[in-house]
Specification:
single chain; mainly beta; Jelly Rolls; eight-stranded antiparallel sheet; 3 helices; 5% helix; 46% strand; disordered N terminus; lyase activity; FA58C; Alginate_lyase_2; lyase; Polysaccharide lyase family 7 protein
Length: 424
C-alpha cells in the first residue's frame, strides 16, 4: 500500500518535533500514528510467535514487540548481555526477520540475530554489532539470511549510537519460502462476492435522478443494480449520486452495508467497552469523489445519539476527483468530540487497494493497515477512551458534506470492496 507520500511523511516528522532526554533511565514515547510504514510486499510467510521473553526490561515489556503497534516497545538498558527471544513453538523454516527500532530514524541500533532449537545453543545468522541498523527509519527494517530450521529467534542487543538503551517497537519473523496470496473471490453479485449473509444494504430504489431511500434492500442475495451496486472485475462497486434520497437521520446520500447478526435475521449491537475485541477487515478502494470531495468508506456506528458515528474512516480530496492523491481522514466522535476536529492520518491514491482493519476493545478504537495475508502491519490510528456500548460496523460509499446538493450525472462517489469480514 502506497499510503503516505514522501512530502506528507516529511511534514509529519517535522511537526512532531521529537525530543530525547539522555539523563533519564526511562525513554519517552512519541505518537507514531502519522508516520508511514513502507511495508514491503510479503515474499515469505509471516510466522506465528508462541511466546516472547527477555532478560530484562524497564517496564516496557517484550510482548509490546508483537502487538502491531509502533507506539509501544520493549526496552532494556545495557551495552552487553541484553536480549529478547521469540519462541515459534516448534522448529520452523526461518530466513527473514523484520525489526522496527525505537527512534530508529535518529540513531543506529547494534545487534545480532541468533537462532537455534535450544536457547542454550544458538548460532549467529546475522551480525550487525559493528554496522548497526540503518539509522534512518522507525519502520520495520528487513534482515535476510540463509534459511534455517529453528524454534527460537533471539535478538542480542548492544545499545545504540546515542546511549546504552536497547529498544524495539515491533518484530516480525518470516520464512517458509515464497507465498502466493489467495485468489480474489468470485461471484456475479455483490452478495456472492463478499458473502453478505450477515449484512443488509442501505440503498435506493428508482433512478439516479429520482429515487427513494430503502433501509434494507429486499432480496439482497440476488440484488444487483448497474448504477449503484454491482460487480466489476472482482470488486463490489458502491455508487451514490448527489441529491439522492437518504435516511431521516442524515442529509448525506449513501449506498452502504450495515452489519447484522450472524444469521442475518436481526440488527446487531455489541459493546466496545469490554475486553472482547470486535473487528472488521475490508479490502477497499475509493475510485471517485463527489463535489464535496469527501467519502466515508467504513465506520463504527452506535445506536444512541450520544456517540452516533463513533468513527468514520473517510477520504478528502477535490470536487469530482477521479485520480491522484487524497487525504485519509478520521472523523466521528473519536476525533470531532474527543480531539476537537477531524484528523488527517495520511494519504493514498484514488483507485489504490487498501487492506484495513477497524477494531474496538476496552473503549479504544484502532485502525490498522494489513499485509497481503491479513496480518496487522501498521497502526494508523488509536483513539482516546470512548464508551459506546451499542455498536455495529458499516462499509460502502457514504457521501459527506452533501446536504442540499442537487442531482448531477457527474456528481457521485464510487467505492469498491473486494473482501469484507467481521469478528466478534
Amino acid at each position: 500500500m502506497k499510503t503516505f507520500n514522501l512530502l506528507t511523511r516529511l511534514l509529519c516528522i517535522a511537526s512532531i518535533g521529537l525530543l530525547y532526554n539522555c539523563t533519564s533511565d526511562i525513554e519517552s514515547v512519541e505518537d507514531l500514528s502519522l508516520l508511514t510504514q513502507n511495508e514491503q510486499k510479503q515474499s515469505r510467510a509471516k510466522l506465528n510467535v508462541v511466546s516472547v521473553s527477555a532478560n530484562g526490561d524497564d517496564g516496557n515489556v517484550p510482548s509490546n514487540t508483537l502487538d502491531g503497534n509502533l507506539n509501544t516497545r520493549w526496552s532494556s538498558k545495557g551495552r552487553s548481555g541484553k536480549y529478547i527471544t521469540y519462541d515459534l513453538g516448534s522448529p520452523q523454516k526461518v530466513s527473514r526477520v523484520k525489526i522496527a527500532w525505537y527512534k530508529g530514524d535518529q540513531r543506529k541500533a547494534y545487534f545480532k540475530i541468533r537462532v537455534g532449537n535450544s536457547t542454550s545453543s544458538l548460532t549467529t545468522v546475522l551480525d550487525k554489532k559493528s554496522e548497526g541498523s540503518s539509522g534512518n527509519t522507525r519502520q520495520l527494517e528487513t534482515y535476510d539470511f540463509d534459511e534455517v530450521t529453528v524454534r527460537y529467534v533471539r535478538i542480542s542487543c548492544f545499545a545504540n549510537s546515542s546511549n546504552d538503551w536497547n529498544s524495539i517497537t515491533e518484530t516480525e519473523i518470516h520464512g517458509g519460502g515464497g507465498t502466493t496470496p489467495p485468489p480474489p473471490p468470485t461471484g456475479s453479485t455483490p452478495y456472492d462476492l463478499l458473502g453478505l449473509q450477515n449484512w443488509k444494504l442501505n440503498g435506493l430504489e428508482g433512478t439516479k435522478s429520482n429515487n427513494t431511500y430503502v433501509d434494507q434492500i429486499p432480496n439482497l442475495s440476488s440484488y444487483t443494480n448497474p448504477d449503484w451496486f454491482f460487480v466489476n472485475n472482482g470488486w463490489a462497486i458502491f455508487q451514490v449520486w448527489a441529491g439522492s434520497d437518504t435516511s431521516s437521520g442524515s442529509g448525506n446520500p449513501r449506498m452502504e452495508l450495515r452489519e447484522l447478526t450472524a444469521n442475518g435475521n436481526n440488527n446487531i449491537f455489541w459493546d466496545g467497552t469490554t475486553s472482547k475485541e470486535h473487528s472488521m477487515k475490508w479490502k477497499v478502494r475509493v475510485d471517485r469523489l463527489p463535489s464535496s470531495g469527501k467519502v466515508c468508506f467504513g465506520q463504527i456506528h452506535d445506536k444512541t445519539d450520544t456517540f452516533d458515528d463513533v468513527i468514520r474512516v473517510q477520504c478528502q480530496g477535490s470536487a469530482n476527483q477521479t485520480s491522484g492523491s487524497v487525504k485519509m481522514r478520521i472523523n466521528g466522535y473519536v476525533t470531532e468530540v474527543l480531539e476537537g476536529g477531524g484528523k488527517t492520518v495520511g494519504n493514498f491514491n484514488l483507485g489504490e487497494e487498501l487492506y484495513l482493519e477497524l477494531t474496538y476493545k476496552n473503549s479504544i478504537v484502532r485502525l490498522y493497515e494489513l499485509d497481503n495475508n491479513g496480518n496487522r502491519s501498521r497502526t494508523i490510528y488509536t483513539s482516546k477512551s470512548v464508551s459506546a456500548k451499542e455498536n455495529y460496523f458499516k462499509a460502502g460509499s457514504y457521501l459527506q458534506s452533501m446536504k442540499g446538493k442537487s442531482y448531477k450525472s457527474s456528481d457521485y462517489g464510487s467505492v469498491g470492496i473486494q473482501k469484507l469480514e467481521v469478528f466478534h
